[in-house]
Amino acid sequence: MNIIVTGGAGFIGSNLLCYLYEKYPDAHFLNIDKLGYASDLSYLNSIRNSNRYTFKKMDIVDREAVRDIIRTYKPDGVFHLAAESHVDNSIKGPEPFIQSNVVGTFNLIEECRQFWKQDDNSWKPHRFLHVSTDEVYGELGDEGAFSEESPYAPNSPYSASKASSDFIVRSYFHTYGMDVVTTNCSNNFGPHQHDEKLIPTVIRTALKGEDIPVYGKGENVRDWLYVRDHCRALEVVYKEGKAGETYVIGGDNEWKNIELVRQICTILNQEAPQQSIGDYQNLITFVTDRPGHDFRYAIDASKIKRKLGWSPEDAFSERLTETIDWYIERYQ
Ligand SMILES: NC(=O)c1ccc[n+]([C@@H]2O[C@H](COP(=O)([O-])OP(=O)(O)OC[C@H]3O[C@@H](n4cnc5c(N)ncnc54)[C@H](O)[C@@H]3O)[C@@H](O)[C@H]2O)c1
User: Fold this and answer.
1) NAD(P)-binding domain location, by residue (predicted)?
2) Which of 4, 5, 12, 55 to mutate to test the pocket of ligand 1 (most atoms within 8 A of CB)?
3) 62 and 130 Cβ atoms separated by less than 8 Å
4) Which residue has a Cα nearest atom 39 of ligand 1?
5) d(CA 314, CA 19)
6) Average pLDDT, 10 consecutive residues per value, the chain (332 residues)
7) Helices marked H in the chain — which ranges?
8) In CATH, which superfamily holds the domain spanning 2-187+225-252+293-314?
């Protein structure tokens, strides 16, 4: 079985590759990544020399390169994660988001369609899993949760580009009958995340004794899921999800940003105490809010739980401490 993972040198992709590689000893994995600023191939050191793993540095915006690799590698399935992923960057400069997330997704799925569709109009066995975000649904007030039925209402150029890619993928099922599944997941945490994201930023600035920046009053609410739980969900959706359907994925684990930052500081006080700093919470500094900052995201993951038997299994506080330890080692 030949499996392509796009974006495999990024946060979730590298965790996913390591997870799937261990679990499927008969599969071969091709990692396609352009090696942008958020990538780090050292995350894949444990598999890099294996004959069951190949890395190809490539930009999925390059249509001909995508065509070449699909025709040479002959994938049986694709986990599509490659994307520009940081909301703040999409506000500063939206164009790379449109290129990678919209044009890149189109290039990939269209070249897969051309390869998987046979001359007699039947399909080779295949599956295309598109990995998306809960941010496509916009923001919630104090109550409620996103489900597969929630209307799309993206508010940032990032979420708008992901919503566009979701629609392209959806159309390939309805128009061509291609075997696609889409997942929309909440915020992930764990090892391998780029410095710019919330949890690594808190740890990095705290350890240096710098101000820990928190947007607005820190009242925004996010649902947090450990990255390995997300990988398990992607595995089960890829294997057992129904073609043409979407699955929302979440951790039943809502935190106000300020409460999460305080919790991280409390753990840092134990794991990496510094006399000159004292309580890391004293470094928390409120900064001007992000424009169009969505107030709250929450997920009703009952469909994937009921239909595919998935649920988050990792204990949050232990996984958060492990994650913090991983970043302490990285930053110190
Ligand atoms: N991080 C989260 O909390 C979260 C939650 C839900 C969904 N997602 C989705 O999961 C996917 C992975 O997110 P992540 O947090 O690992 O992001 P990331 O930024 O850490 O990694 C993305 C990877 O994709 C690669 N990439 C980007 N554009 C590319 C292109 N044009 N061609 C080839 N490679 C390209 C980058 O080089 C990078 O290695 C994204 O599609 C994102 O929208 C992320």
Assistant:
1) 4-322
2) 12
3) no
4) 10
5) 15
6) 98 98 98 97 97 98 98 98 95 97 98 97 97 96 95 96 98 98 97 95 97 96 96 98 98 96 98 97 94 91 98 91 97 90
7) 11-23, 63-73, 87-92, 95-97, 104-116, 157-176, 198-207, 227-240, 257-271, 302-308, 316-331
8) NAD(P)-binding Rossmann-like Domain (3.40.50.720)
